[in-house]
């Protein structure tokens, strides 16, 4: 029996939708994160760009002089393969610009750090930021942020300090800059020095940087600490007794002033209390003065202010030289540009912590696999978040290592992520050009980086390289795509006929040639063509 009640036609206004499409739609339609607003009082981007243009005027002048006076094919631009101005070129620039040679060299180095001049191998040429300097505020601000990121290179580091100490200060300065940004005003240098000391101490503690080798036993007025009981003769050279996993680290049983050795090889102090004497009675936590004296006696836990004061002075002067802060009269204050740049960095950390697809802590390979089903814009957002959470150098190395694997899809995605990295990845990408598996991808990346239109970038590939890339892409489609997609990929080949394609595919020697041809034969609806493809696969397999 059918109902005689009239149906409400309005219910048909919503078009039916396959249930299978629902999860994908949910994944792709994430709520957009509202663009954060800079702190109150931050100048407008146009004003910030004006400040950056003023601060980098000298670098722009030298870069433009080099662009006009040292065009392609002219000698004298470099001398040592590092895009450093030769003596003759520096003197010529000084004469024509009315500067000293030292000023020319300083402005040239600033131009390189700001991306106004780009280094390509053993030569330098004007960067895209120089071309857009007068009309694009975002290019100007990006150039200044690049200089800000390289502040430790903009001012000579102290020669009488260990490189490791300088590296620790460079690693600790982001926390100092964050404190300056949150303070929103002048901060005494003594306060910054205390904060720097704490951060460097944390860095050393994270590395478990403690003294190794035989150490003298601390003494007390009543005699050596721990005299009440014998010392285990099986203890290692640092006083650490063997455990089930080998010798315990010095942080477990190291003897310190005011404490006694643990009762046994496996005994460790409980959280919040020092190790007890040999009879097992727990000691009360040390008083503040005693704890400070103990920390000062251990170079792994305390950093002398005398050691860090000149390094902090160097860091503040270097940041002042790039225009990030003002420094004098015993205090430091972020400039509007510096405050804005630190805020941008903090926002990048927040973006990294809110990785949309949850791949922020994954390895490069796992991250790329997680992005395989995302649309291009969503994948790029994931790449940016993943890159923001780690140093650029190690991230590029990890991406290239993932590209060297057997999965062709990850190879293509790795170079998409490297496009997000941009110029910092160029030396590493250029270094893998001679690797057969990565060469086509690297050549395309370099062509696009040099300004070639992505639609025309394939023209830099030879016929053999283009065919190799076609096979590699077909392998990715065969592993992760559907049969119709593989058939459509056949139409993208450069060769005018299928027999010509098969001949060249067999010649390039791609390791996945047989699997690709077998998959293509199984997917193609034309029986005659499928038979020809299977025959080619058999010939490759047998070496015929």
Give structural notes.
The N terminus is likely disordered. The strands form four sheets. The protein has a three-stranded antiparallel beta sheet with strand order 3-9-8. A two-stranded antiparallel ribbon has the order 1-2. With 544 residues, it is mainly alpha-helical. It is built from 25 helices and nine strands. Helix content is 54%, strand content 5%.
Secondary structure elements and their pairing?
Blueprint: H1 21-28, H2 45-55, H3 57-69, H4 87-97, H5 101-113, E1 117-120, E2 123-126, H6 128-131, H7 137-149, H8 151-154, H9 163-183, E3 187-188, H10 189-206, E4 219-220, E5 223-224, E6 242-243, E7 246-247, H11 250-253, H12 288-297, H13 305-321, E8 325-328, E9 331-334, H14 336-353, H15 364-371, H16 376-388, H17 392-403, H18 408-421, H19 426-431, H20 439-449, H21 463-480, H22 483-490, H23 498-508, H24 513-523, H25 527-542
Antiparallel strand pairs: 1-2, 3-9, 4-5, 6-7, 8-9
Please describe the structure with a list of short key phrases separated by commas or semicolons:
544 residues, 3-stranded antiparallel beta sheet, two-stranded antiparallel sheet, 25 helices, disordered N terminus
Instruction: Tell me the number of helical segments per DSSP (H or I, 4 or more residues long).
Output: 25
Helix proportion: 40-55%
Overall number of strands: 9
Oligomeric state of the chains present here: single chain
From the N-terminal CA to the C-terminal CA, the straight-line distance is: 70 Å
Q: What would you call the shape?
A: elongated
**Mean pLDDT across all residues, rounded?**
74
Category from helices, strands and their pairing: mainly alpha
Rg of Cα set: 32 Å
Which residues form runs of ≥5 with pLDDT under 50?
Answer: 1-32, 75-81, 223-301
Largest sheet: 3 strands, antiparallel
Proportion of beta-strand residues:
under 5%
User: Biggest sheet: strands side by side, in what order?
Assistant: 3-9-8
């Amino acid at each position: 029996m059918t109902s005689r009640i009239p149906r409400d036609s309005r219910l048909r206004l919503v078009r039916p939708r396959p249930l299978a499409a629902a999860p994908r739609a949910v994944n792709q339609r994430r709520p957009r994160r509202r663009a954060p607003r800079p702190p109150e009082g931050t100048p407008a981007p146009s004003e910030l760009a004006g400040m950056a243009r003023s601060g980098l005027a000298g670098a722009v002048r030298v870069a433009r002089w080099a662009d006009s006076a040292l065009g392609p094919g002219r000698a004298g631009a470099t001398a040592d393969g590092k895009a450093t101005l030769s003596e003759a070129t520096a003197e010529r620039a000084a004469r024509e610009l009315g500067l000293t040679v030292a000023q020319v060299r300083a402005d040239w180095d600033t131009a390189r750090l700001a991306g106004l001049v780009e280094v390509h191998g053993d030569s330098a040429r004007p960067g895209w930021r120089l071309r857009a300097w007068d009309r694009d505020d975002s290019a100007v601000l990006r150039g200044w942020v690049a200089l800000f990121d390289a502040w430790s290179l903009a001012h000579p580091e102290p020669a009488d300090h260990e490189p490791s100490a300088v590296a620790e200060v460079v690693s600790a300065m982001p926390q100092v800059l964050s404190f300056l940004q949150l303070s929103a005003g002048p901060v005494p240098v003594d306060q910054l020095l205390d904060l720097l000391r704490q951060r460097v101490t944390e860095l050393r503690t994270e590395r478990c940087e403690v003294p190794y080798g035989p150490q003298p036993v601390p003494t007390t007025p009543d005699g050596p600490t721990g005299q009440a009981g014998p010392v285990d003769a099986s203890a290692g050279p640092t006083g650490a007794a063997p455990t089930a996993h080998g010798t315990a680290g010095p942080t477990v049983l190291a003897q310190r002033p005011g404490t006694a050795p643990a009762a046994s090889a496996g005994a460790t102090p409980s959280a919040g209390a020092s190790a007890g004497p040999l009879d097992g009675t727990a000691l009360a936590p040390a008083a503040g003065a005693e704890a400070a004296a103990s920390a000062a006696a251990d170079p792994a836990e305390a950093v002398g202010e005398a050691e860090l004061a000149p390094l902090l002075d160097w860091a503040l002067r270097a940041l002042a030289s790039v225009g990030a802060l003002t420094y004098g009269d015993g205090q430091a204050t972020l400039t509007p540009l510096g405050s804005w740049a630190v805020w941008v960095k903090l926002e990048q950390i927040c973006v990294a912590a809110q990785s949309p697809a949850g791949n922020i802590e994954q390895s490069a390979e796992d991250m790329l696999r997680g992005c395989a089903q995302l649309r291009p814009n969503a994948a790029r957002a994931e790449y940016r978040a993943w890159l923001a959470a780690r140093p650029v150098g190690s991230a590029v190395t990890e991406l290239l290592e993932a590209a060297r694997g057997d999965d062709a899809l990850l190879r293509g995605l790795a170079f998409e992520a490297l496009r997000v990295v941009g110029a910092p990845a160029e030396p590493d990408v250029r270094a893998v050009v001679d690797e057969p598996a990565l060469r086509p991808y690297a050549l395309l990346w370099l062509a696009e980086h040099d300004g070639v239109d992505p639609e025309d970038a394939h023209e830099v590939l030879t016929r053999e390289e283009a065919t190799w890339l076609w096979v590699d892409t077909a392998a990715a489609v065969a592993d992760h795509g559907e049969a119709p997609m593989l058939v459509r990929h056949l139409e993208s080949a450069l060769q005018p006929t299928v027999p010509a394609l098969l001949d060249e595919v067999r010649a390039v020697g791609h390791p996945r040639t047989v699997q690709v041809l077998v998959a293509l034969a199984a997917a193609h609806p034309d029986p005659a063509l499928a038979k020809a493809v299977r025959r080619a696969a058999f010939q490759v397999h047998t070496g015929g």
